[in-house]
Amino acid sequence: MSEEPANERTCFRRLRLTPLRDLVRGRLTGRLDLDAVIAAAELPASLSQVVRDVIRRTRLFRLEKIAVAQELAGHFRDGLDQGVSPGELARDFGDPVLAARLIRRAKRRNRPLAWRATVRSLQAAWGLFGIVIVLYGIAALRFFAGSPNPSVDFLSQINAATLAAPTADRAWPEYRAAILALKRPPELSYRRTPRPGEPGWEVVEKYLAGSHVALEHIRAGAARPVLGYEIGFAIAARDVELWPGQAGIVVPANNQIMFGILLPHLGEMRRLTMLMVDDARRAAARGEPDTALADIETVLSMSGQVLESGFILNDLVALSMFTRCIDVVGELLHEYPDLFSDEQLTTLAHRLGGLAGGAPMRVSMEGERVSFADLVQHSYTDNGRGDGHLTWDGLKLWTLLRGTVKPTDPVMMAAGPVVGAFGASRAELVNKYDRLLAMVLTDATVPLWKRGRSSVDVEIERIQSSFTETVKFLPIALLMPAMSKVSINAEMLTQRRDAALVVIALHLYRRHHGAWPSELATLVPLFLPDVPPDRFDGGPIKYILRGGEPVLYVVGTDRDDDHGRRPPPPAHAESAMVWLPLEELAQAVSGTVPHHTVSDGDWVLWPPAAPEPLGPPDPDNAAPIYTFARHGS
């Protein structure tokens, strides 16, 4: 009963000591049995131990060890057969450690070239990996140990002008009083505020009539030289009742950067603009030109106050306010051509012509430059010479502003030292941003019809298309907005302003001559200094008489003169107001850029297009007009 288990053990041992190559061939050789090789030589115990010690120290492959064992055992067996004593054989053999080292070197040298090349490659890879780990450790220590040291209080610098202005020169206290004086607006179920003569206008008119105190505060505020709103990272105590929902927002001290300032007043200024525009409509419908003109001038002043800060968001809001004002001027001149006297029209023309001194509208990027400089000083160390390296605090700020990755994301933490090592230094980043900002400002001075693709957009796309460049200039790739679009919006506003001046001149000409002019050149110089350009093609703004009525237009997006025809349905009239560089326009027309659609038609500046339908009343979706924050918007 004991024989079968012994046989099983013997079979298992032979299986375990058989090379894989033999097993594949179906042979159970057991030729890796070192004990059997030594035993077959019938060596004394001392020499057998020498063989075992040498084999163990060679650290060779198993088959190589068997071959060495056979050679050593054969060597010692030959010596014994010649009558040499075991002691003499062991003494003549020498140090087993040295022998094992020499044998290992010889055997490794005889291995195949492919194997040796693979081993060398792996050794090099492991060595390189070790170097990378060491360098990563150094970079991580530098990255996580560094800390920014903000030294410039940009917020105080920006607020300095506001605080330096006397209280009597600040408009915001009047606007605050106006908002507080306004009652909750009426709820209307239409998609837009009704206009005179439309269903629901009586509700709007009643609300405006009951808001006369607020309207006077707004007009008083517009007469002040500066807006006077002190920006910050929290709502000022005096403004808490305007925005109680934001009053509890507390920004941690280490996150107080200019990109994180609160600007809730901008939304209120837009809503106050809507209020004044509708009041101008109300005054016009009631035959009150003085009030309508005062409302228009109020919005123009409010827009200029918002524009003063230099932040892109302020610029966009101000341009939107200017646009609403100019649009309502065109609307009133169309709906009520005899509302204003010649003197009032002249006053209005001077007021509109005074925007940007009659030159193309421009926006300031100073607020953006300051905001970026503030982000840099909260992100980088400072060596005292305008340079430094990125820190963990800085990378967390960038991801917070981006909002797509949590600052505690393990992947981001692991990537941080790499970004810090290969990213731009403080000086490199600032220089790059300053160059891009200079490009923006240079592009903005080029008339729209002479522009190609924005050089800034091209550079940003180049950075974003390259992984190494994106890592190097990560905050620019993540945070720098499409600044070129702001100057394009300013050009569009310039076109609207110029058109409004032409429309005023047309009305003055008609009043003096009893008919519309046959061409715009007739207006120069008595009613118009010169004919303004079509900012899409550089020629003069276009003018025709259709059915005895004037049509003022520019060629618009497609650069094709369609003789004052708006884009046909289903395209909206606004589709002709999109400016594309000629190369992008060609791609859009050919369909190679599917997200751009080009409608066939002109941008008709005057007469204004019919307003979009109010839509059927829907009480379930009723929303208050002029939704000021304190009323729950």
Layout of helices and strands:
Elements: H1 3-16, H2 20-24, H3 34-41, H4 45-58, H5 62-81, H6 86-93, H7 96-109, H8 113-145, H9 154-164, H10 172-181, E1 187-188, H11 201-209, H12 212-222, H13 264-285, H14 289-307, H15 312-335, H16 342-353, H17 366-377, H18 392-402, H19 410-422, H20 426-444, H21 455-465, H22 467-472, H23 474-479, H24 484-513, E2 542-546, E3 549-554, H25 582-590, E4 603-606, E5 623-624
Antiparallel strand pairs: 1-5, 2-3, 3-4
Helix pairs in contact: 3-5, 4-5, 4-7, 8-19, 10-12, 12-14, 13-14, 13-15, 14-15, 14-16, 15-24, 16-24, 17-20
Give an account of the 3D structure.
The chain is mainly alpha-helical and 633 residues long. Among the domains are: 14-109, no CATH class; 155-363, no CATH class; 366-482, no CATH class. It has a three-stranded antiparallel beta sheet, with helices on one face. It has a two-stranded antiparallel sheet with strand order 1-5. The relative contact order is 0.08. 55% of the residues lie in helices and 3% in strands. It is built from 25 helices and five strands.
In short:
The protein has about 625 residues and is mainly alpha-helical. The protein has helices at about 5-15, 20-25, 35-40, 45-60, 60-80, 85-95, 95-110, 115-145, 155-165, 170-180, 200-210, 210-220, 265-285, 290-305, 310-335, 340-355, 365-375, 390-400, 410-420, 425-445, 455-465, 465-470, 475-480, 485-515, 580-590; strands at about 185-190, 540-545, 550-555, 605, 625.
